[in-house]
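Example 3.2
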Amino acid sequence: MDLIEAAAALEKFGGVNLSRTLAGVEVAVQGMASKDCTAALTKFGISGELLLAAGLMKRVTGQVNVLIHAMGILACLPRLLEAVETVEYVSLGAGNTGRSFDLETSHRVAEFKFIRWRGGPESIRQNQLFKDFYLLARSKTHKQKCLYVLGTEYPLKFFNSRRALSSVLSRHDKVAKLFRSDFGEHYEVVRDYYHDHKDIVKIEDVSSYVPDLIADEIAESD
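Structure, written as tokens:
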């Protein structure tokens, strides 16, 4: 099965509204006995082929997110770099690459978050953003420290919030241990930590550097 076939299979099953389609399936299977399952699944178009299509699209989606991140960084470089500044490394792949940050140059270290913030409950995104800010802030380098985002409104709203740090760090055990080693129980909420460290890391909007991401509302997932 190729990508075109997989996309067609998922579109055929989901119809105009996937949530509505699944809600219909939920109602239909209520009270169903084992002997009726095969016929019902066939009726709704649920098959091993559909599951294969979903798995294939999930793998591709993950690769697309990596590609967005990599291409976004590279697209920003011509606008970010100063005339006398040179790239020491970029970390474009997914996962642990053995490098501390997305970018290090002769003048700066930087992390990039190509996420379209929506302003709702975005705790996972906030957690990742805080982790990047904190690791930049605690870095021993004397270079400029930068956190590049698509729009600063919601990131700054989060950094000035009273969200508990215990919640923000709950999914990052290693970072949580580092943070408590650095500060103990001195900070309880995000805004208190940010207030004391906001001048260490520059948070900058790079939307104008990657207008195609904004125009098509493409962004990285969590």
